[in-house]
Every structure is written in C-alpha cells, then in structure tokens.
Amino acid sequence: MAKLAVTDAIKSLAEAESRLNLCRVEDETFFTEWQGELPLIERSEQSALETLRRRLLHHRADGELLEGAVTLLASPLLELAGFYDPPFKVKAEAAIEVVIDDGEETLRGRIDVLILQEQLWVMILESKKTIISTRSALPQALTYMMANSALTKPRFGMLTNGDDVLFIKLVAQPTPQYGLSRAFSIYTLPSELRSVFQVLKRLGQTITF
User: Fold this and answer.
1) Cα-based distances in Å from 4 to 94, 98, 206
2) What total of structural domains would you count in the chain?
C-alpha cells in the first residue's frame, strides 16, 4: 500500500471531495452551530479578547506572519474558549493516517492542534501564514477530519491564517458531507474576533452536552 503525504496527494478541494467521497452541503440548516443566538461574552473574556487583538495587530504590523506565529497567536483563543480544560484533551502536531476507499493508498499528515473529547475529534486548528488564503487549507483539513470515518457524531474544524477564520462541520455517516461558515475577518474588525470566540464557545457546548 502506497503511503503519501496529505499535502502531496491532495492539492485541491475538488480532489479532496473526489478521493474522500465528500460532498459540500449548501443547505443552511446543516451547519447552524455558528449562527443564531451565540453565548454571551463575560467582562473578563472581553478584556482577554482585546489583549489578543492588540497582540495580533502588534505582530502583524511588521509584515506577514509565518505558520508557527499564527498558531501561537490562535492558541490563546482556544484556551479562552475552554478547549484546554476538562473534558477536552489537546494534542499538538498530531499524526494521522487516512486510508482511501480503494485500499491502495494511505495518506499521512500532521495536524497543528487537535482537540479531543472522549476520543472524538472535535476541533482541528490548521494554520497558514497570513499571505495564504484560509480556504487554501480546506482540502488538507477535510482530509484530516476524515481520518476516522467510522464516527457517527459531527466533528468541527477551524482554519485560520491569522487574518481570517473559517469553521467547518463534517459528518461522515451515513454519507460524508461538510458545510462551511462564513469567513470571519478578525484582523479587519474587532467584532469579528468576538464572533469567532462566541462560535468556539457554542461548539464546545454542542460537543459536551
């Protein structure tokens, strides 16, 4: 069986959808978790978000951020949303393998930050340097999220390049499907960072309830 790096084997969204038998759902009722009435932001959380935004603007002022710097700036957001506390577990640079349906290929890769709750993959943070579009990470992230296609519960992903954030919902059973949120421009507007934080809190509540 051939073993290939995810980034080498799947280079486009069309290729990811074809090889993983994935289809995108356009129905807005499929991915409602990022919409509607989101959790309130407490005063202490608002203060922490303002600090994160000042930090982002400070480092971004010197130019484009590399992938490692994007991860370092995004990680405190996950911590603030409660993903570093029980019942969640965190793995950094988690190795994964995805077996293609025909059994002839295994794709290998590493996830920047993987958060698990009772062995369920609930959040993938796939960061890219700021000069690259957030959507360019979508084929890679979808491949990672399909690593355990036997799971019946939805799993969620978060993509960021430090400027923008995009959320993913993926359901593998009975038919692999995924949906996308709108893009949140956290670099442009302070309110967008607050919205991203609220969505993260909602996802955490959805998973643990």
Assistant:
1) 16, 10, 34
2) 1
Q: How far apart are CA 197 and CA 40, in angstroms?
A: 10
Token output for 17: 């959808």
Report the distance separating Cα 127 and Cα 67, nearest Å: 6
Other Cβ atoms less than 10 A from the Cβ of 59: the count is: 16
Cβ neighbours around 5 below 10 Å, total: 11
pTM, entire model: 0.86
Domain ranges, residue 175? 2-208
What is the b/e burial string over 117-146, where b = at least 16 CB atoms within 10 angstroms of the residue's CB? beeebbbbbbbbebebebeebbbbbbbbbb
Q: Which amino acid is at 206?
A: T
- CA dist 197 and 175 (Å) reads 30
Closest CA to 20 of 180, 181, 133, 175: 175
Strand spans (E) along the chain:
2-5, 23-24, 89-99, 105-117, 120-127, 155-160, 164-171, 177-180, 184-185
Query: In which region does residue 82 sit, left (phi positive, over 0), alpha (psi from -120 to 50) or beta (all else)?
Result: left
Q: 85-115: per-residue pLDDT in tens?
A: 998 988 776 665 555 555 556 655 566 777 7
